[in-house]
Amino acid sequence: MSTALIYSDEYLKHDTGNHPERRERYQATLNGLMADEDFWGDLVKIAPRDATNEELLRCHTERAIKRVEQACSQATLYDHVAIDADTVVSEHSEVVARLAAGGACRAVEAVVGGEAENAFVACRPPGHHATLGRAMGFCLYNNVAVAARYAQAAYSDRIKRVLIVDFDVHHGNGTQDIFYDDPTVFYYSLHQYPWYPGTGDAGERGVREGEGYTMNIPVPAMTPVEAYLRLFEEGLESVMKNFSPDFTLISAGFDAHEADPLGLLLLNDAGYERMTRRLKEAASTTGEGRIVSCLEGGYNLSTLGETVRAHVRALS
Question: What's the pTM value of the predicted model, to 2 decimals?
């Protein structure tokens, strides 16, 4: 069994101009994977599909979706429209965002259906800051959240509990928001703190039935790599002792890399590879090892491709 790659040059149509989350990130990601010809040849290539309204509405309000659609409609006149201070859209961004969320759903289909053992979704825009009620932080729709709900709905006989692991340098406030009261989805995040978006304190553990199904590990800036990895592994061990996922989703942000301009953590490619292997080992003990990883952050174009390759190689 091999690893599937969900990708499409349609992701280039989300034009943000001179912005950290720009089109060149996608090309850098693909170039990094293609740099090893044998490895590239072994990947199962799959095109994404659009997310439906039904799939998006499991994680976002109708008003949030309409706001994205309206902003993109306005962009036909002004080239770019800012939804907030950080989040820019163009004419085709809403269509591309559906393709990002739908690409994550297509990856779930590929893994559950036996097309591949696991999958990496080379999508943009990223998703983990998009909350139930609004787009923010470069994110329009929450790709991993949509995929989690899709997995539970489409494969309810096999997938009831989903683990989402987020190692982006920024806390995934949107993913936490969507599942904060839900005991069937465990959200585990390791992130720089304090940092954007200001959430992710260790005391944020969920509410009502979901209490205890959110785990945040806030990490100070400039934490040494070994200390960071020890925190990650200890947290993952704790999660797996108390939760047996039927499926694992990764919010794969690579902006905790030591060279990234939007973070102050010190991870390197070997660290990402080690975390990925630990996640694969954990998933192998439950849920038949099903894993889908979705690209989130990572903004140094000269290092992103190699880091992604290290991550996907560890998956495969």
Answer: 0.97
- For the chain, how are helix, strand and coil distributed in percent, rounded to 5? 45, 15, 40
pLDDT digits (tens, 9 = 90+) for 53-96: 999 999 999 999 999 999 999 988 788 999 999 999 999 999 99
Asked whether residue 69 is assigned to any structural domain, the reply reads no
Q: What tokens were used for 94?
A: 């809403």
Report the candidate in 254, 242, 243 with the shortest Cα–Cα distance to residue 293. 254
Q: Which of 14, 129, 171, 311 is catalytic?
A: 129
Q: Which residues of the chain have pLDDT under 50?
A: none
Domain range for 129: 3-61+92-315
Strand partners, 191: 218
Distance CA 15, CA 125 (A): 10
Q: Are 21 and 127 in contact (CB under 8 A)?
A: no
124 contact partners, CB below 8 Å, separation of at least 6: 11, 14, 21, 23, 25, 26, 96, 100, 295
Q: What is the pLDDT of residues 280-296, one digit of tens each?
A: 999 999 999 999 999 99
Is 128 contained in some domain?
Answer: yes
Q: Could you tell me if 213 and 163 are in contact, meaning their C-beta atoms sit under 8 angstroms apart?
A: no
**Can you say whether the dihedral through the CA atoms of 130, 270, 201, 282 is positive or negative?**
positive
Q: How many structural domains is the chain composed of?
A: 1
Q: Residue 256 maps to which CATH number? A: 3.40.800.20
* C-alpha radius of gyration, the chain, whole number: 18
94 three-class SS: helix
pLDDT of residue 77: 78
- 162: Cα separation from own chain's centroid: 14
Is there a catalytic annotation at residue 257?
A: no
Residue 178 domain-assigned?
yes
